Every structure is written in structure tokens, then in C-alpha cells.
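INTERNAL AUDIT FORM
Audit reference: QA-55
Scope: verify that the stored structure record matches its stored sequence.
Auditor: D.O.
Record contents follow.
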Amino acid sequence: MKSFSQWRPHPWHGLDVGAEPPLRLNAYIEISPFDTVKFEVDKKSGYLRVDRSVRSSSQHPALYGFIPRTLCKHRVCDLMDGAEQGDDDPLDICVLSERPVSRIEILVNARVVGGLPMCDHGEADDKIIAVIEDDPLWSEVRDISELPKALIDRLMHYFLTYKLSPGKEQNVAIGEPYGFEHASKVIEAAMADYDEEYVSEPERRNLTP
């Protein structure tokens, strides 16, 4: 008998992390490059909520969302210099696509190539960078070093400025972009942080090969 979800699963807790973590993952998309409003999954219901209107004129350079069943807490924090704690959210991911994708609340087959070590008011808030697995332009990329520098600069500029508001202090920093090797450590740490927070000990034993 074929199995399926009778009810809509919670996108953070009810979806699989992906086919082959930390390399091949599911990315749940909250924001497209065409959005001028920041959407974010409501942690209780799993539905999208309007988090804020973006004050700047810049738009997100990539599909943006998170990796299901991940959490940024102490293990993720330990991997970032200067961070005091994780941001207590799922691990964020930017997914590059050659074709324009305007829909959100979708799942994307993503292959990880690196990430950005973003520290937001003392909280580790890494941005994993990935490509759509079979993308005609980006699918041959294996590491962030193979991406155009201008594209990485654009991503960094967006994350450094999209929260800017007149009269309010900005305390966001992004370190040197990292490749797949370090990105894999961040993803594995976020998966372990999630399991510690949300998976019971009997369930963890059953998941262990």
C-alpha cells in the first residue's frame, strides 16, 4: 500500500530534511526574488505569515527559505566566531535558479555549495547557499568558489541591508563566505540541534542505523 500524508505536514517539522544530507536537501521556500515583503513560516501553525515589509529597494537575489528539521542552537553557534547563541530558527538556505521562480510555499531539490556566516545581534544566523539540483546553468557548480563573485557580493549586500531602518542601530556582520566542507558541518550541527530539541530519546535510538 502506498503511503501519503493525509493532512498537510508542518513545513518545519513534518517534511524530510532531504535525500542525502548534508549535500542534497529539501529547501522549503518562503520568499522569491519577486517579493518585496518578508514572509516567514509561523512556528505554531506552519502557515506563512507576513513578517515585515522590506524598507529598502533591494529584492532578494535568490529563492530563500529553510531546511526542514534543522535548528540553530548551541552546536551551530559553536561553529561561528563571535556568536553568543543560535537564533533558535531553522537553518536558512538560498537557492540559485537560472529560470525565474515566482511561487513560494514550494519544495526545491537543492544541492549545497557553501554558505555565509551571518551574525545578527550576537546570534548565529548562517545562510546556506545551494543550487537547484538539475538547473541548466548552475547544476555543474560544486563549491561556492565556482560562483561569480558579483553574485555572492549581491547576497551579502542584501542580508547586510534588508533590515536597515532610519534611526535604528544595525548590528549585523557577515564573515568570509565558506565552501561546501564547512557548510556540511553547519548543516549537521543544525540537524543535531533539532534532534536534541524536538526528537525524543526513543525516537533518536530508532533513527540510529
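Auditor finding: record pair retrieved intact. Residues 24-164+171-199 form a domain with the Inorganic Pyrophosphatase fold (CATH 3.90.80.10).
Action required: none
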